[in-house]
Amino acid sequence: MEKNVDTMEKVVSLCKRRGFVFQGSDIYGGLKGTWDFGPLGVTLNNNIKREWWKMFVEGREDIYGIDAAILMNAKVWETSGHVAGFFDPLVEDVETGERFRADHLLKDLGINADGLSLTEIDNLIIEHKVLSPKGNKVSAARQFNMMFESRIGATAGDEGKVYLRPETAQGMFVNFKNVLDSMSPKMPFGLAQIGKAFRNEIAPREFVFRVREFEQMEIEYFVKEEQWREEFEKLRLAIQKWHDHIGLAPENIREYEVPDNDLAHYSKRTIDFEYNYPGKGFDELAGFAYRTNHDLKAHMNASGVSMEYIEPDGTRYVPHVLEPSFGVGRAFMAILCEAYTEDEMGGEVRTYLKLPKHLAPYKVAVSPLLKNKPALVEKARSVFSVLKETFGTVAWDDNGNVGKRYRRQDEIGTPHCVTIDFDTLGEEKPELKDTVTVRDRDTGQQTRVAIAELVSYLK
Ligand code: GAP
Fold this sequence. Notes:
By secondary structure, the chain is α+β, with helices and mostly antiparallel strands. The protein contains 15 helices and 24 strands. The protein folds into 2 domains: 239 residues, BirA Bifunctional Protein, domain 2, CATH 3.30.930.10; 97 residues, Anticodon-binding domain (Rossmann fold, 3-Layer(aba) Sandwich). The strands form 7 sheets. A 7-stranded mixed beta sheet has the order 3-10-11-17-14-13-12. A 5-stranded mixed beta sheet has the order 21-20-22-23-24, sandwiched between helices. Strands 4-9-8 form a 3-stranded antiparallel beta sheet. The chain is globular. The site of glycyl-adenosine-5'-phosphate has 18 residues, from strand 11, strand 14, strand 17 and helix 11.
């Protein structure tokens, strides 16, 4: 099926309807740029994070996981350059006062303003007579810092100022020395972290794509300066493997080499891994940057703590760093768009999520053929308990008829449905006693399987 802007709308609507994602603070009219993950959404998110951790931390010897505090000393962000340089260009609708990202207004007209100065952006706005989405003139562009500020304790003034972290990365840089001292890693090695990040985005938009509170899965991979190209290529392959593992088709992934004039203040080379979001086109899914030794050096100078690595032969140096950085929400959105499928089954259009089994929120659903037959329900309950013990996330579904249950489970991507029927009880066909029907999500095919073999069959 061809995917387009309608597909994206259908995915968003499915997410709400089936308990994947709800608007944040919904009953109070919502809070822009925040989304709450419902029962199925949190399970999918947890599966994404667990698979990532398995692949990049547990599956390797050279990457150590950490979990740093969200609240960090303000000096971290002054030193990293975020306080002075983490800006987006903002314009205001002169009539309504609404605020927009100048580069996004230009992008909507097909003009790339990445890396341009405010004066260059203003010139483009005048040249192309850029208006706000309401059709009004916009103000001159100005820089807007995306850091959320807060205060700790009962301090006044700037003394207790803290920032909600805009990336998890700095938590790893400030723990570099702690890990060196406690784990004695050999170069090259990495630190990995999954956690929340916060950015006061001027214009959050496109569902969970651009939000103010989101989760990142990041790696800081420390190398000798002369190793960076070789290790960059290895990590690039690991990132490709990850995208394959979460079921994203290679033709929907593009690697965009960020031009020099648009590199972040700390980077000498960055590749954006872009996904072809339906109706939106290719846009950032994950980033991969060579950050030199900018961060470790800056923290060493500001804190006075050495960030040097000492080789067995006594050579000392401040390592350079490669940074694969993934947004959980963007992976979530790409996975759902990729999995969303419409086909025809039994003469009817059906919608299903062709999710990889390791990501599906429920691994299997169990149903008694009829919910008012105690013998069927009792048998189905015992099968449900066994499967739940093995697979954890198992759905119990006894609403409506079997066909409706299958459609419901298809729509949330449950790979298998198990139905307990009269044959399971062996009432008419004793040879089928203690067997169940297992239905496959993608093909709709039904197979008779003995209960005793069900776990290994589903595995
Ligand atoms: N430490 C490097 C860093 O934070 P980034 O490109 O700004 O780099 C990395 O962010 C990833 O985090 C992005 O590729 C995206 O997946 C995710 N991300 C960034 N800003 C986001 C936002 N406002 N909403 C959702 N995800 C976001």
